[in-house]
Amino acid sequence: MKKAIKIIIITPIAAIILLAVVLSVMYSPTYLYRLITMNVADVYDYQNFENREIKGGNDVFNFAENHDEAYVESLFDDRVAQSGFSSFDEWAEKSQTTALIFIKNDTILYEKYFNGFKRDSYFHSQSVAKSFVAFLIGSAIDDGLIKSVDDPMTTYIPELKERDSRFEKVTIKNLLEMRSGFKYNTSLLPYLNIHAPWHDEAVGYYHPNVRKILLEKIEIESEPGQDFEYNNYNSSYLGLIVERATGKTVSKYLEEKLWSQIMEYDALFSIDSKDSGLEYMPSRLIARAIDYARFGRLFLNEGDWNGKQIISKDWVLNSTREDKSISREYYPDWLGSGCDHNYYAYQWWGNTTCDGDFYFFANGNLGQNIYVIPSKEIIIVHCGNSLQHYNDGDLKRIADKL
Fold first, then answer.
1. Is 55 helix (H, G, I), strand (E, B) or coil?
2. Which residue of 154, 158, 277, 374 is 20 to 30 Å from 69, comparing CA positions?
3. 3-state SS, residue 220
4. pLDDT of the residue at 33
5. pLDDT digits (tens, 9 = 90+) for 301-311
């Protein structure tokens, strides 16, 4: 009996130890340490990584202010009621909202911070970072450093075709549109419904040498340019292409082409490790919420910033408008197929409405959003640290109301 009990106790412990050894060998001890200590991603993760600083500008545009807090908060009445709370303030606290900014016609109607955050706090972008990385591809094309989105990715990362000639079929546009055909492991642990340790969301996020993964590990699973699959490696490859084409780090090029020109505050971009030195493109840009609003304004105005064309108008249009030449059969059902449906452009999401209107948004986990409604000249920024009582559909419903 004692022997059986001992076996029952020792077996799971031995299995855990074996799994830890295997993960350390496959992905590195640093990966295992980050996976255990950080576990589920949150908006404070950047504090656990090395960060590159991105300098802001000296002479920046400031929005006018004409606050109408009661009106903006009333737009969330349905969400507050749905969540079972008695007031907007209670909802903001319990939803772990950290920032909410509402701008119309270059005028701030609402700007508030919650749960200990302030205007100059750092706000983790999560996947909102993808829209900034795509901006840099457009900048490199404007600068003549990248010829076209139709360039094969192997033009800038030629060693990939030595490993698999099919990489030559993958274009920059395929990467931008999440239609590359890359294999992406999305395994969940049985009965727990959480990412397995080999899930590519985790591997790409915690690995100390993402550059090596991109160059040596990623495989092609299906024909490029067809099915849409949200895959973080697409964004990582875009950043690597920017690095190769410009001869600069993504942080430095972002500072040169955007931050120093229009942003008020400095920002950070986390890297995988000092040795690799590659920014984690899909989600670890860290900035201030009001500067996210400035980015929204730049795209609302089709790349024009007070008379200066920061990024070409064509790039903004291609980045944010639906490409109707792409068959809806390539998109999953959850994006919709009727007159009111979502689409994905160049690392920006969008929504078309049945009355012919549209809006577009940068979208990140845990409630990070930059929503732009061109027909109303409205920009909404929401930042948070939970999806329990908030999701990006809340801003869609507000956009529909407006």
1. coil
2. 374
3. strand
4. 86
5. 999 999 999 99
CATH tag, 40-401: 3.40.710.10
The structure's pTM equals 0.94
Distance CA 212, CA 231 (A): 17
Residue 2 has pLDDT above 70, yes or no: no
Helix (H, G, I), strand (E, B) or coil at 373: strand
Q: Closest Cα partner for 31 from 283, 204, 193, 187?
A: 204
Instruction: Say how far apart CA 352 and CA 276 lie, in whole Å.
Output: 41
d(CA 105, CA 274): 43
Q: How far does CA 136 lie from the centroid of its chain?
A: 14
Summarize the confidence of residues 326-344 as an average pLDDT: 92
**Beta pairing, strands 51-54 & 358-364:** unpaired
C-alpha pair distances (Å), 16 with each of 3, 5, 198, 332: 20, 18, 15, 36
Task: Quick: pLDDT tens for 98-131.
Answer: 999 999 999 999 999 999 999 999 999 999 999 9
Tokens of 394: 């809340």
CA angle, 199 then 157 then 213, to 5°: 25
Contact, 231 vs 175, CB < 8 A? no
Residues 6+ apart with CB under 8 A from 148: 141, 172
- 160-172 pLDDT, tens digit per residue, is 999 999 999 999 9
φ, ψ of residue 170 in degrees (nearest 5): -85, 120
Per-residue pLDDT of 174-208, as tens digits, reads: 999 999 999 999 888 776 677 788 789 888 899 99
Residue 55 in contact with residue 43, Cβ under 8 Å? no
pLDDT per residue as tens digits for the range 17-63: 665 666 776 778 898 888 888 877 889 999 999 999 999 998 899 99
Q: What is the DSSP string of 327-339?
A: -GGGS-GGG--SS
What one-character-per-residue DSSP string does 162-205 give? HH-GGGGG-BHHHHHTT-S-B-----B-TTT-SB-TT-HHHHHH
In order of 262, 298, 301, 302, the CA distances from 308 in angstroms are 10, 10, 11, 11
Which residues touch 184 (CB under 8 Å, ≥6 apart)?
200, 221, 229, 231, 232, 233
**3-class DSSP assignment, residue 341:** strand
Tokens 């409604």 sit on residue: 373
